[in-house]
Amino acid sequence: MEERGHAVGVPCKLFVGGISSQTNTEALHLHFSKYGQLIDAVVMSKNGRARGFGFVTFDSTGPAVQVLAEPQWLDGRLVDVKRAVPGERTQERSSNKVFVGGLAQDVTTDMLKDYFGAYGSVADAVVMVDRRTNRSRGFGFVRFANGAQGSAAAQ
Questions:
Q1: Which of 32, 49, 71, 143 could hold 56 in an S-S bridge, CB 3.0 to 4.6 Å?
Q2: Residue at which a domain ends, from 61, 83, 105
Q3: Distance between CA 7 and CA 15 in Å, rounded?
Q4: CB 77, CB 27: distance < 8 Å
């Protein structure tokens, strides 16, 4: 069954990143419920402290597509909303992800991918940036592809 080109009845989970430490689950739910029926909303925390991200799950893909189509402001902050990727937590913990420190200010994500591509297939790379100044924080991460080749490259 489809409604305006979107599957009806198929839950759609979104990742919401860059949220304020003041934002709680109720605020997250209140903000995103205006787009459609939410099955779940949660701000992730560890030891009672907000971790700066959360998840919302809509009962169908239609509202999620609408959310992704426009900038989302929550508690005065522009937040990063993406489709949640199943199994992403497992990938983050895999040994295929390496920390890269001591980066020069002009090193870009593409430069990281190009450089580390010589060691194996790069699935993802990121240079960490200060949100306020938009300047490199001098470190980043490279995640090699899953499988034997990626594991060997990360060693």
A1: 32
A2: 83
A3: 19
A4: no
